[in-house]
Amino acid sequence: MEKSALGKGLSALIPENVSLEKGESIAYINTSRIKKNTLQPRKEFDQEKLSDLISSIKEKGVLQPLLVRQSGDQYELIAGERRLRAAQSLNIDKVPAIVKIASDQEALVLALIENIQREELNVIEEAKAFKQLIEEFDFTQDVVAQSVGRNRTTVTNILRLLTLPEEIQKSISAGSFSMGHARAILSLKNESKQKALWKKTLDKGFSVREIESLVKVEGEGQGKKKKISQENRDRYVVDLEEDLQRALGTKVRIKAQKKRGQVVIEYYSPDDLERIIHIIKK
Description:
Distance between the termini: 72 Å
Mean pLDDT: 78
Number of domains: 4
Shape: flat
Order of helices and strands: EEHEEHEHHHHHHHHHEEH
Radius of gyration: 24 Å
CATH class of the largest domain: Alpha Beta
Helix content: 40-55%
């Protein structure tokens, strides 16, 4: 019977044919010297998949290097947290790693891209990572899209999920509520109605098409009322906010009073402001 990788020594952990880019080097680093990435966009790990990876590494070793950056006398993980966790659980002393010179911004983008390529992020984790790039690193939605290989519309739709109530976001993360269902519910501007339809969908198993039909009926029903109640007027303002956010690709808040108010449009960099002004002038 063939020996497991753990019985073959460090050579079993050394990957073959590793191509390095400029400014990168490969090292065999003690796992105790690798600290977690504070910018890691991934927060949830599938235990079953992790167990499968542990079994694979036990048999074959670490076939793909981790990606790290120097942090004092330690290393900070950029990509490969599952591999690191698996190696640590097997008490593997050293793992192969590519050491890269990277800024915080580059580290987040690299971690995000790797997780997206491996399809290991849920859509809420993606949305929060996109938001972090915009708020902390002054990315526009266009730059986010270019950085992670997505189109602008997809990035916008993913970011919109963060406007949903926390309970619905957790349900999306857990996989019990799909992005298609969530996007349909976003058409409702009232949070209590969003929650009500979300709960009905979980209980009755509504399809995306059924939710869209229910939302449409709700909208038509509101249109038939002659008098606009305070609740409906507030919903109308929220609806206008959503329309403006879609048109401008950024966060918009309407502070409405009885006869006057303010429209607050957020921007995240001089380029983003110029983009928004260009849209308004059209």
